[in-house]
Every structure is written in C-alpha cells, then in structure tokens.
Design goal:
It catalyses: a 5'-end NAD(+)-phospho-ribonucleoside in mRNA + H2O = a 5'-end phospho-adenosine-phospho-ribonucleoside in mRNA + beta-nicotinamide D-ribonucleotide + 2 H(+). The protein has 292 residues and is α+β, with helices and mostly antiparallel strands. It has helices spanning 15-18, 21-29, 93-100, 103-121, 195-207, 256-264, 279-290, and strands at residues 34-36, 38-39, 42-43, 53-54, 64-71, 74-80, 133-136, 141-144, 150-151, 156-165, 168-173, 185-188, 211-222, 227-236, 250-255.
Amino acid sequence: MLRPGFTGSPLDRADRLRNDPDAFMTAVSDWRARLLRLDGIDPVLGEDGRLSWGSLAEADEGAELLLLGLIDGRPHFAALDYGMPEGATRSMGIFRTLDLLPPEEASTYAGARSLIDWHLRHRFCAKCGNGDTVIHRAGWGRQCGRCGAEHFPRVDPVVIMLAEHGDKVLVGRQYRYPPGRYSALAGFVEPGESVEEAVARELHEEAGLTVRDVRYVVSQPWPFPSSLMMACMATADEAALTIDTTELEDAFWVDRAGVEAALAGAPGAPFLAPPHYAIAHTLFRWWLEQAA
C-alpha cells in the first residue's frame, strides 16, 4: 500500500466543533489541550524526534488559537501570530527536519503550517476590498467585518507525473534544485481543466511530448504553502524531447535500473532522487513495483 509523505495524521478534524462557539471554548479550557510548538512557522521536535507540544499557556500574548483537531479526545491547537513569516519563505532547516519526522507527524504539521499560512495571507476581504477579516469556525475560516463575506482555506491542485516510454520514464530538473537532483515533472491545474488534461498539457509544454493513457496513482498534501499533489502516469509514443528552458534546466529518459539506483542513493546513480517525503519519490517507487 502506498504511503506518501504528509499523510496519515492521527487528528480527528472535529468539524462538529467548528460552528459551535461554546464547544470551542470548552476545548480551549480543557486542561488536556495541547499547543503545537513552532519556531516561526517551522516545527520544533522533541527528544523522541516527533512534534513537540506544550500547554496553551505557552501561546504568545495576542496570538489566536486555531483548533487543529482531537487526538484521543484531547484538543490540539496551533497559535496564529500575525508577526510570523509566510510559509512561502522556507527556512533551509525545514527540509532537514522533515527528513526526521514520521509521515503521520509530518501530516499533522503540514495541516497546521498550511492553515497558519492561509490566515497570514487573508487578513483583508477579497470581496469588498476594504474590510478586515476575523477568525471564525475555530480557525477554519475568516469573515469580513464590513461586508460579512466568509472565506475558507483552499488548496491549489497540482499534477505531478512520470511520462513512460518503453521501459524508461522522463525525469527533469528545475534551476532551483540542489545539484544533481531530478524529479517528476509537475504543474498547476488551470481553471476549466481536468487532471488528465493538465498532465498532457504540462508534459507537452515543458518537454514537447504528446501523451496518452493518463492514469491517476496517488495524492499528497504539500504545505509550501498549500497544494494537493496528484501523481499520475502517462504514455508517450515518441521519445524526442523539446525542453522549455524557462521551466526546466534539463530532462532525460532513465531506465528502471537507474531509478532504483537513484532511490537507493547508490554511487554512480544517474540522478539524485527527491526526498522520501516528496510524492515524486513515492511515484518512482510505485513505477518500480509495477514491474516486480
């Protein structure tokens, strides 16, 4: 069974509490309630290598509480401080931390990070353009104080895909990747477009490929700042590439032995694989397993 990174959180999201102010206040006053410890917007790890939680009394003065959900009936919160940096500004340490977190812990953190970042970006009303927004629904919405419009957290749909030709798949690298790293190609789904259409368009735009038989494999949240990655496969009848150098620095076809070596971190592997918590890593493993 596929287990992508950032999935498997033990949180009960407790939607039943979000529209009940009395229930929310009961959760806040619960002596068992826990607060996610953060360094800015990055997670703090305990000695056990898992997320660190403290009491609600640790929240900074003026911070607002966001109800993440319940774990074993115990309320778990994150604190929103408007002085936090937006998640789009990633610290270099965040990826080293994610290497250490179990998937279910990373999943809980991903939800908190994306929710906090959404609040930091939506302090003003996008409908009337004039009103300040305030938190409601226990942190899972904002409401304009002027026109009353409600705004809710959203995720951006992204396709990430491997084009297959014979016994090889296409890997590519962007300019910002670490030296030697290659991954699956990816792009945002555009308005009025299906997942399958987005896969075909992105592969054609970035690599000049015409593909068919697009197949969905698995999905994963990606909290930088808040995307839903939908991993797919597609079949290319021709191998010739026309690379869009505004999007990709390089791309090439690699066989199963090359992908296996890359995932194993073997010396002489044809590329540096994506980290284990990235869905591209999961997609590569899935492709290898299909031939097993």
